[in-house]
């Protein structure tokens, strides 16, 4: 039987946070923590380093703004120049509303798509759903999963943290 990892259940947020810190300090690289609510400091305790969403949103906004401006410039200056009221074909103030709107639109779409992609969503199945007790993770329990670790070493390590239970997570 192939294992995804070893999972332990904890009764409180403080116990999960302490367990995640200890697992990270012990050298376990792939740590997943599950909680019914956000816990301050948990991402850092599991080894989470950088959030790429701001960079993705910035890139999307720049692409939308530059693309919107160039689209208007091409149509007004190169493709179909019209002398309207004596204004020059490249009258940049009239390009600002569409440029702004496309900046916001493409940045928002890039943020949503980037968030979904970085979180691996949509995911209809995850191996932790094979653990029957895991349904309590959305109610009142806290779980720590050590992925891709030596199963026996991970079990022994987790036993030392005094969890409520320990389970193997099959793939």
Characterise this structure.
The protein folds into two domains: 3-50 and 132-170, 2-Layer Sandwich (Alpha-Beta Plaits), CATH 3.30.70; 53-118, no CATH class. 44% of the residues lie in helices and 14% in strands. The longest helix is centred in the middle third of the chain and has 27 residues, at 53-79. The chain has helices spanning 13-25, 42-45, 53-79, 96-118, 151-159; strands spanning 3-10, 31-34, 142-147, 165-170. With 171 residues, the chain is an alpha+beta fold.
Provide a concise account of the structure shown.
The chain is 44% helix and 14% strand.
Strand count, sense and barrel status of the largest sheet are:
4 strands, antiparallel
Shape: rod-shaped
Identify the strand order in the major beta sheet: 2-3-1-4
What separation lies between the terminal Cα atoms? 8 Å
CATH architecture heading of the largest domain: 2-Layer Sandwich
Report the uncertain regions: none
Q: Write down the overall mean pLDDT.
A: 93
Q: With helices defined by DSSP (H or I, 4 residues minimum), what is the helix count?
A: 5
Instruction: Output the CATH class name of the largest domain.
Output: Alpha Beta
Order of helices and strands: EHEHHHEHE
Strand coverage percent: 5-15%
* Helicity level: 40-55%
Number of beta-strand segments: 4
- The overall number of domains is 2
Q: What is the fold named in CATH at topology level of the largest domain? A: Alpha-Beta Plaits
Structural class per helix/strand content?
A: alpha+beta
Alpha-carbon Rg, integer: 25 Å
